[in-house]
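Incident log, structure service

09:12 report received: a user says their structure output differs between two submissions of the same chain.
09:20 pulled the input from the user's history:
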Amino acid sequence: MRRSFILIVMTLLVAACETEYVPKPKGYNRFDLPAHEYMALPDTLPYHFEFSKHAKLLRDTSWISDKYWIEVYYPELKANIHLTYKVVHNRDSLKEYFNDTYFLTAKHQIKSDAIDDIISKTPKGKTVIYTELSGEVPSQFQFVTTDSVQNFLRGALYFNTTVQNDSLRPAIEFVKVDIVHMMNTLKWNNSQIDP
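09:34 re-ran on a clean worker, output below:
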C-alpha cells in the first residue's frame, strides 16, 4: 500500500514537471465606448454648451471652487472635466487668468513628454486654445477660451484611475471629441452673472 502511494506521488510529480507554462501577454483595459450624444447645459450658468449624455454635471466641491465651477463627470470612464469660470474685470485680471492657466499646465512638465498647444476657431467664431499633454501626466487635455471682455473659461480632463495613459488613449480620444463639441457649441450667458 505504501509502495503504491509513493509510486502515485512520484508519477504525479514527474507529470507536473513536464507541463510548460507560458506567461500571459500584456493586457490592456477594454473600453466599450458609446456613440457621441449630447444635451444642453442648464441655463443657470454664465456659459452654455452641449455636453455628453453619458456624463453627469456635478458642482465643484474643492476648497478653492467658485460659484460657476462645475465638473462634467463620466462615471463609466472615471473621468472628470473640471471647468473653471472667471469674470473678466479688466486687462490685468485677464492677464492673471492666463498666467494661472499656463502655470497650472507647466506644473505637468515634470512628468510630460510633450506639451502641445493648438489654437482653434469654433464655428461660432470663438478662439479656443487646446493643450495636449503626453506622458504619464495627471491631466491629458486642457483648454481655455475667453471673449477678452467679460468671460474666461478653462477646462482640464482628469481620469481617477491608476491605469497608464497609453492604455487610456481610447477613452482620452473619446472625451476630447466631447470637449471640442462643448467648445463648438459654447455661448456666453452674461445675464446669469451676479453683480
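09:41 both user submissions now match this output. Likely a transient worker issue. Closing.
09:42 reviewer note: The first helix runs from residue 2 to 17. The chain has three helices and eleven strands.
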